[in-house]
Amino acid sequence: MKTYGDKEVWFVTGSQSLYGPEVLKTVALNSSQIVEGLNQSPAISVPLIEKGTVKTPDEISEVCRRANNDSKCIGLVLWMHTFSPAKMWIAGLSLLNKPFLHLHTQFNAALPWDAIDMNFMNTNQSAHGCREFGFIGTRMGIDRKVVVGHWESRVVHEQVDDWCRAAIGIHEGKSLKVARFGDNMRQVAVTEGNKVSAQIQFGYEVNAYGLGELADSVNQVSDNDVNALLDEYASTYILSPSLFDDIDSRKILCQEARLELGMERFLDSVNARAFSNTFENLTGISNLPGLATQRLMEKGYGFGGEGDWKTAAMTRIMKVMGQGKEGGTSFMEDYTYNFGEKSQVLGAHMLEVCPTISSGKPRIEIHRHTIGCNCDIPRLMFSAQPGFGLNVSVVDLGSHYRLLVNTVNTVKPPKALPHLPVAHALWTPQPSLEVAAAAWIHAGGAHHTVYSQAVTVDMLSDYADIAGIEMVVIDEDTRIRQFKTELRNNVIYYR
265: which of 207, 289, 374, 429 lies 20 to 30 Å off by Cα? Predict the structure, then answer.
């Protein structure tokens, strides 16, 4: 079963009537076999739906119109089996508002050296048919993914899936609603931004709700529902029995369970799949949600601290893009450094790190929180899973949006952290902390990020291309001088 079985990618084959009915029968048969083969690949997460061979401008325009109006269709794979004169595609591509991937392949892998003739050559013209199609895409200024290779190749399948997941992210953004409880943290610059321009660019809505509305939802949660959730906590995480036995600790856990249920019900009532809050605006609720926020992220909600709605939206989008892949995705913050031979970043936040990135079974602990409120708050405690990961930031530069990506190597902390009361991740940025942090600062990257071990650089590159935003990558090849030149050139292009 496909990860995104409720969505579709349409497979459309280009040809023309010049070659006669027998060639077109072969084209149709080959297309069906390719779609069947791609759908059998476990590497491709979205079902491909064959939509036949288009041979005229009217047929091309019609399939593009139908794709635009089909809510299940997240994009198209276009393949030129034969030569498909590209002027036929102008009207359809002008209408198309769904992303497309250009698959540059041919049905056969090896040439039949002993049997090849002109009929074979005319039937299998992808080599130059796709070049003709490629020209019109470039001439029309359409940014699209091009995948080259035989359709049975695992590498091709993985590249197709990267694009499919990016298209899923775009689709999610167009229907996403982000709920803001309270405003942004006062005096902070990078968490601000233009919500109207964000909706135009990405599609998601950002709406503010009063703390009183949230408090009403929290207060309506029944004691029976709270007790059932406490049982779930006990069965899901490591939880000391003393937390239930102690009257004060149990009351604190009950408050947090009530917050989780109240927030989730409110978010669902307004159809929001991402949210932000701030420790500076908690009027009407008991405390800054800790465990409650972590649990909601674990369920797939996006989150951004201190009113950071851009990061909340991107957390949700990346969670959807990484669905079914190994590794998790979390709201994150570069918190403090460990300078040394290989300098490192200790990432964390006040409370809200998602347990999908945990290296083991998280444990629930209650600790004092003193920022914005002075009270004991439950939270999930863990260290992140070692391995390759990404830190991602979306920043509003006024003229355009920049998607900033840093590749990192996450490691197990060398020693226990007995006095650190928050979940955390320790990583070495590529190519080094010294270069990565300087590049990040030059690029204007935020202190809040989305951290992921499920989403790849290629997925994000495809996402940025479809969204029409700038993307810059800080990785093992980054050099500051060249990086600054790239930023300057990008500013000229995107402005």
Answer: 374
Q: How far is residue 144's CA from residue 326's CA, in Å, rounded to a whole number?
A: 27
How deeply is 441 buried, as exposed, middle or buried, from its count of CB atoms within 10 A (0-12, 13-18, 19+)? Answer: exposed
* Beta carbons of 448 and 311 less than 8 angstroms apart: yes
**Structural contact between residues 280 and 181, judged by C-beta atoms closer than 8 angstroms:** no
Rounded Cα gap, residues 201 and 409, in angstroms: 31
* Predicted confidence (pLDDT) at residue 388 exceeds the cutoff of 90: yes
Least confident segment among 118-127, 159-168, 396-405, 485-494: 118-127
Residues 127-143 have pLDDT tens digits of 999 999 999 999 999 99
Name residues whose C-beta falls within 8 Å of residue 423's C-beta, 6 or more positions apart in sequence.
294, 348, 353, 355, 358, 362, 379, 380, 381, 382, 383, 384
Give the separation between CA 283 and CA 198, rounded to whole angstroms: 28
Q: Respond yes or no on whether the N-terminal peptide bond of residue 431 is cis (omega within 30° of 0).
A: yes
Q: Tell the residue number behind the tokens 């309506």, with chain if given.
A: 220
For the segment 261-303, what is each residue's pLDDT rounded down to a tens digit?
999 999 999 999 999 999 999 999 999 999 999 999 999 999 9
Which residue type does 15 have?
Answer: S
* C-alpha torsion angle, residues 372, 376, 380, 382 (rounded to 10): 90
C-alpha–C-alpha distance, residues 494 and 469, integer Å: 8
pLDDT band at 1 (very low <50, low <70, confident <90, very high): confident
Tokens of 196: 């109207």
Give the separation between CA 471 and CA 478, rounded to whole angstroms. 14
Q: How far apart are CA 391 and CA 130, in angstroms?
A: 36
Buried b (16+ CB within 10 A) or exposed e, 282-305: beebbbbbbbbbbbbbbebbbbbb
Give the CB-side neighbour count of residue 431, counting CA atoms within 13 A. 9
Q: How far is CA 171 from the centre of its chain?
A: 11
In this predicted structure, what is the pLDDT of residue 82?
Answer: 92
User: What is the chain's Cα-based Rg?
Assistant: 25
Task: Give residue 10's Cα distance to chain centre.
Answer: 21
Largest CA distance in the chain: 86
- The continuous run of DSSP H or E covering 474 comes out as strand 470-474
| Token pair in block for residue 274 | 């991402």
Strand partners, 451: 330, 391
Structure tokens given for 123: 């039937």
Token code pair at residue 230: 């406490």
In this structure, are residues 371 and 350 in contact, taking their beta carbons and an 8 Å threshold? yes
Phi, psi at 464, each rounded to 5°: -65, -40
